[in-house]
Amino acid sequence: MDKILVFDYGSQYNELIVRRVRDLGVYSFIVSYDYDLDKLNKDEIKGIILSGGPSCVNDLDSPKLNPKIFEFNVPILGICYGMQLLAKYFGGEVKSNTFKEFGNTKIILNNDCSLFFGINNEVSVFMSHSDSVINLPNGFNILASSLDNKIEAFSNESSNIYGVQFHIEVNDTPTGKNIFSNFLFRICKVFKNWSMKNFIEEKIKEIKEFTKNEKVILGISGGVDSTVAALLIYKAIGNNLYPLFINHGLLRLNEEKDCLDRFKNKFNIKVHYVDKSKLFLDALKRVTNPEKKRKIIGKLFVDVFKEEAIKLNDVTILAQGTLYTDIVESGKGGNSKVIKSHHNVGGLPKELGFKLLEPLKDLYKDEVRELGKLLGLDKSFINRQPFPGPGLAIRIIGNITKKKIEILRKADFILNEEIKKANLDDKIWQYFAALTNLKSVGVMGDNRTYFYAIAIRAVSSIDGMTAKAYPIPYEVIEKISSRIVNEVPYVNRVLYDITSKPPSTIEFE
Ligand code: XMP
């Protein structure tokens, strides 16, 4: 398959570069700027994009360009910092400015070149930079300038090297899609062969080759990711797949029953069920640190898997529904920092003892939903709430007790009922209740109470990487609040979280 390699220099828009390329039907992935290139299959890489980033190319300790990228002998496009890196590398001059140019600007471009083919010669683009290229390297030409004659894009067409100072990956550059398309199809001359249908065929082949006749164990949580992973692997290896549902005692109300019924009645796939809630809750007793909670849950998951795998005989492979975003957020993808150890990545101990199969690890959440549809899942299930592997453990701030789990289950159930009643469930990307560790004074009847505050979280998002608070209509949120304080014991206050991600995250821990 033709692939476009994106080097991560730290810009907050990097994931969007990958998305734009994939949306045009070409597979793309991101690696850190200092990634070991010998690990890549060079024949598949048909183009390279250098991302933007917050550094200054003139600083001694700034992230550098790896000259080995030229050995790929494929077209290269630098965006913002990426353009400045190329300019400096080939002997041009980059000037560091103290002020930042941020927002939309008009530029004049030369549409007599492959990169800007078919685009008007005066367009509005989105800028976010301090430094500028002020002198071109030898052999390079200006492709676009600002109204005050600053260099905004350049090329060395004979070497297939291009640079743009503006961000073509954001929606605020309306011609960005056309520029990507020109780069992919006119310059890199790639084939459009990234589609979910192709993905299914390729993955099934890959899974068969990887597993040979060995048996695979897969944790099922009832959520979309593990269900889609199960259907895909089942399609490849049938009954050599052992889906295993571990009840860790941190599930939503009725979760285990719903999940087991669905697999049995809808997909006719047998799921093995074990109740390990005591084991997990004992290990989590008095643990308050969010990362510790995640690591404990991750480790116990693997321990239980091993235990069950031995019972099931001959299982040698552990499959997981890990997504691309899980890998990036756990600091394993590009240049991003560790935000949270998602239980299925950072939580896994090194000495796994299994071979690991992660068939969804190249996909974003919305791509998994599309895949689920093609595998026969219905819309209501596909649009189901994402539920994290560590479950309610990361929605209860501080230490976890059975009483707190009960409180949260009831509150979350009410929230779900009311959101569905208001026909909002397919409008909100993710919504849930969390139990804050905050107790405050209230009054019920004539008595003083000193009970917990429940937080309501509802967000819009495309892939979970960024999110905005969803504005639940006031009358709905008021009803939710009133039902929770009236129906759930030990709760006397409901708070509505309206922060976006960043700076918050979606989950509370
Ligand atoms: P955050 O809190 O990282 O959440 O902004 C982004 C998305 O990821 C889900 N999430 C997880 N899913 N294991 C999972 O399977 C985890 O450890 C985990 N942590 C967060 C979260 O529900 C949201 O959809």
UniProtKB/TrEMBL annotation:
SUPFAM superfamilies: Adenine nucleotide alpha hydrolases-like, Class I glutamine amidotransferase-like. Residues 194-384 form the GMPS ATP-PPase domain. GO terms for molecular function: ATP binding; GMP synthase activity. ATP binds at residues 221-227. It comes from the Bacteria. Its EC number is 6.3.5.2. InterPro entries: Class_I_gatase-like, GATASE, GMP_synth_C, GMP_synth_GATase, GMP_synthase, GMPS_ATP_PPase_dom, NAD/GMP_synthase, Rossmann-like_a/b/a_fold. One of its GO terms (cellular component) is cytosol. Keywords: ATP-binding, Glutamine amidotransferase, GMP biosynthesis, Ligase, Nucleotide-binding, Purine biosynthesis. The active site is at 80 (nucleophile), 167, 169. Pathway: Purine metabolism; GMP biosynthesis; GMP from XMP (L-Gln route): step 1/1. It catalyses: XMP + L-glutamine + ATP + H2O = GMP + L-glutamate + AMP + diphosphate + 2 H(+). Pfam families: GATase, GMP_synt_C, NAD_synthase. Catalyzes the synthesis of GMP from XMP. Homodimer. PANTHER family: GMP SYNTHASE [GLUTAMINE-HYDROLYZING], GMP SYNTHASE-RELATED. This is GMP synthase [glutamine-hydrolyzing].
